[in-house]
Design a protein that fits this description.
The chain has three helices and four strands, in the order βαββααβ. It is α+β, with helices and mostly antiparallel strands and 109 residues long. Strands 2-3-1-4 form a four-stranded antiparallel sheet. This is NIPSNAP domain-containing protein.
């Protein structure tokens, strides 16, 4: 499994628009074979940083998802919302390998 970590710099005056964008992508990623873990919007502290986390079974599955975005009408609508509202200033994408509860040893094992 590979988890994509997206760190967004957002326009804090367009938080509602960014939240609408986020709500579009969660079901899209899930429909396209991923598992979306959610968007995390500013609360306390920096008012212009948001994070999204989603996983795919492999990097190849993630790349297939990315390749399908240009041909998917709903994905294009989500991207157009961000372009139209300019709610995203920039973003950074990183890939991580999760360590999950199932990977842990239990006392007495």
């Amino acid at each position: 499994m590979i988890t994509c970590y997206l760190r967004y710099v957002i326009d804090p005056y367009r938080l509602a628009e960014f939240e609408a964008y986020a709500k579009l992508w969660i079901p899209l990623v899930n429909r396209m074979g991923g598992i979306h873990h959610g968007y995390f919007l500013p609360g306390e502290g920096a008012n212009n940083i948001a994070v999204a986390l989603f996983s795919f079974p492999s990097l190849a599955a993630y790349e297939a998802y990315r390749a399908s975005i240009p041909g998917d009408r709903r994905c294009q609508e989500a991207l157009a919302l961000a372009d139209r509202t300019r709610c995203i200033v920039s973003y950074q994408r990183s890939f991580m390998r999760p360590v999950l509860d199932a990977d842990c040893e239990r006392p007495g094992d």
